Here is the input.
Amino acid sequence: MTPCRFPATVDTLWLDARLATLADQTPYGVIEKGAMAVDEGRIVWLGAVEALPADALNRARSVHRLDHACVTPGLIDCHTHLVHAGNRAREFEMRLNGATYEEIARGGGGIISTVNAVRNASDADLYHQSAGRLKAMLAEGVTAVEIKSGYGLDTPNELKMLRVVRQLDRDFPATVMATFLGAHALPPEYTGRPDAYIDLVVEEMIPAVAADGLATAVDAFCERIAFTLAQTERVFSTARQHGLRVKLHAEQLSDSNGAALAAQFGALSADHLEHLNANGAAAMAAAGTVAVLLPGAFYYLNETRKPPVDLLRSKGVAMAVSTDCNPGTSPTTSPLLMMNMACVSFGLTPAEALAGFTVNAARALGMQARWGTLEVGKQADFAVWDIEEPAELAYRMGGNPCRLTVKGGEIVFRSSSIAGEGCHG
Ligand code: DI6
Ligand code: FE
Here is the structure.
């Protein structure tokens, strides 16, 4: 890395940390005994402590000593359904008594039971239930999260969900990006008329979402229990007409050739991908579409078919990892647990799992110019961890070693100490 000039003054200087920059291909891009300077919310210098100018401490308005903690880019959760109401613990019991996810969905449960809960929830209730989950993520090093609609399934309730997403973005010190997922499931009032529902999505919902700037991307669930390839294509064409990026729930339960369609539309990402075929992977590589792997849903549904990780690696498709935080198939708010599952269940290396929640997650949101690595010029979004080496993030199963979450240079979460114990940071 070429050293850059240390500015005359900086807001903060962070000292004595192992910096996992994720900025190069060496696993983690580690800078040992590192220092990082932040000014006006951006990283303006980073390198080894010994490369600092002699008077660096005097040039900083504040100095934080990290006594050899690890620092990573802020975690980015690029695929969530975090805004929802209620829970599906009863369906969890039904599945343990033998019913499958698809059977429950066909019987009017599944996504539709959450749709009913969201339709019946007030804006305030939906906001408060969702805010708790966002707080849990912030406390685990998350500085940006994508949230989808898709549990309203009529125009007023889809817009209600997206307004809650916007309010969370305004109220919390994490960037929250909204994705419109009207084509998530067929609402009961359209039973037997899926094309008529897609008419509503493309003629009314997408124009309304675009007019209010309520989402930056459009997603769909292309699957035999949801929407066909042709219906998905209509959604994507309309998104494109309104200047919205697309992404897709593809090849989760069966191979529908969704990933290839997504790539054809220049999708930011194709997500799940357990049943991805070689053509789909090649199309994604050519289009630069990121593969978002969701090990929580794989685990929770007790799936056996894994996404073709070797194929994705050999084609050079960037792999992101995400929580898929949702009440039916991945009721979790823990990126760290997902990193562990991505390694144990899918065979990712711990470095790939961390890249999946940082540099590649930033790409999956089209935000790689600002987020995802520790580099000069990037936003000062990072997490400080009480661990010795970066692989520990994926190594543990549960627990949270996050000491600090920093967004735009400001500390937005500090791990609380148990009474009687000193607090670091
Ligand atoms: N795939 C999923 O895993 C979630 N949505 C989707 O399209 C599940 C959502 C739910 O069951 O509530
Ligand atoms: Fe999902």
Q: What stands out?
A: The pocket of fe (iii) ion (ligand 2) is lined by residues 79, 81, 249, 324, 326 (CB under 6 Å). The chain has a mean pLDDT of 96. The longest strand covers residues 60-73.
